[in-house]
Request: fold
Amino acid sequence: MPTAILTRMILPEHTCPFGVRAKALLEQAGYAVDDRHLTTREDVDAFMDAHGLSTTPLIEIEGKPIGGCDDLEAWLATEPA
Reply:
């Protein structure tokens, strides 16, 4: 089973809907998902700074960074079924 790392924002007051969608898309596509949560604003900001991002989530498949949810959708559309 192929694997994916999903790093997404889940704060006490907000769960990123793009992270939720990305997880569902990955699972529907048959990926084992290593679901990593950023649980404080400080964690989110530090993660985005470290990876040069302006948003979360970040999806990595088999060690390759794919990007966010929109990038994942485009990437999955090009993958053979």
Remarks:
- Strands lie at 3-11, 14-15, 32-38, 58-61, 64-67.
